[in-house]
Amino acid sequence: MRNLIKNIFVVLVFTSIIGCETFEPIDENRLDFDFVSTVPVRAEGILLNGYTGLVSQYSFSEGATDDAVNNQLTNGYKRLALGELSGQYNPASRWNNLEQVFWMNQFLQIVNAGEILWSNDEVVNKLFNDRLKGEALALRALHHFYVLQAHAGIGTSGELLGIPYFTEFIESDGNFNTPRLSFEATVQAIMKDFDDALVLLPTDYTNNDGDIDAKYSGIDIASYKRVNGAQFNLRISGRIVKALKARVALFAASPSFLNDQAYYAMAADNAADVLNTIGGVAGLPANGIEFYASDNNIKGIESLWRGSVGGNSTTYEERMFPPSVNGKGEINPTQNLVDAFPMQNGFPATVANGYDPQNPYANRDPRLEKYIVVNGSSIGGGTINSGLGGGIDRLDSIAELSTTTGYYLKKLLRPDVRLNSDGTTSGKIHANVYFRYTELFLILAEAANEVGGPDNAIKGISARDVIAAIRDRAGIAQPDNYLASINTKEAMRELIRNERRLELSFEGHRFWDLRRWGMSLNETAKGYFFDGSSYNELPSVENRNFQSFAIYMPIPNSETVKFSELEQNNGW
Asked: Cα 304 to the chain's mean position, in Å?
């Protein structure tokens, strides 16, 4: 007890001593907004937040479509496909991309205040100010589009709604209770931001004097290259913005949304403007089929916009390679997709056109074995047997490891990656691709056909021209008599949709294409199995269970509960 009292006395004495002094709060080395908003490199850091959250080819959402089954029981897209999609559970939600929108608004607030001096040179300062403001406007539009694509829909009021469109930075204690715009008003707001950005951005970042836009005439070349030189060529540019306008316009024009000829025309015009700068259909990149398969292809022209090339890695191969080459076999393409690949002569794969169910991969479109590991294919240093006698590669051999459909994924994977049994790996470079030229060609084909049919030329390019070039590149035998037989808008529509399904397979497009076209989300996933003597179709690998209103995805319930002005989509 005596020791306790002594200790209390010591504490009281010490407390009385420090109570007589006034201490300033410790500087925790936090950078306040005033500092960030006046130092160029710090301010640009706010802008660079807009380059996070960009959607690349690696979403693997196909596991919730008719193109694939995911063999991981807890995979988010598998859970969606089996009926768990709701306002509380939605792995496909992009509502969080509004965070990047507010970063862009904060950066624009800084720029518009005029307090940043990017350079002491007046001309260079203006060039930097314009370009960076243009980037922010374009990225604000793009992130709004990501949210729109994932959350537009018919609201509980019966109106086709878009999303709230934020053009001002809102402090954390501000009012976020903002109603959704109509769908078309949202599209128009996106297009306005894109158009404003086009005024400020160069078409391309280049060191080639001949490629500099006319609007920069009279500016010192060295000054221009300091701001808009090739060192910035992974940043968003005027070329990319025009391609994005085409993507947004096609989305808006689609049957589930505005079903509007003017937006189809807008999509076609913007796509043609960009494609004609590379020579039209003659400029279709030869490496587009396997843009991911080698270092040269990854860095090639097919990627209209991509991220930086990182170091060697094996992440996707570890997830997707078959188990005999030490992968987890996660994405299993369906027989539904395999059936969509035509014969090599270009005609649909039917018995009448030469298809043999017992020799199912003979004389097929060469893209089939480039994109899908069929029974007997090679990948990752091994030959894969998914039929009887195939060991751990055999269909349903090991849960969450072996294929459920008889197929494994090949597309997007580096065939030269090695995953060794001793745990060592030999990785290769990969890159996030945000927009491919092949997608832009297909946008033009779809839009031009909807405006005027197969031979309607938009600035010299028709749907028939595009599809002919894509199928010729794929290895379809020439002359392409099946394409020649297509003479109506309806028949060309079906062919374009199928070509889009094949060319853009496993890049995250099918999940959204089915919705914008208003097609069935519940097609049963099928497989194919070799039993040692014959091939047999598996008619029901996975039954899909989307609600009838799931063409339009839900607004997160956590948002509609907080904000009374935020109308939910019908059914959710």
From this structure: 13
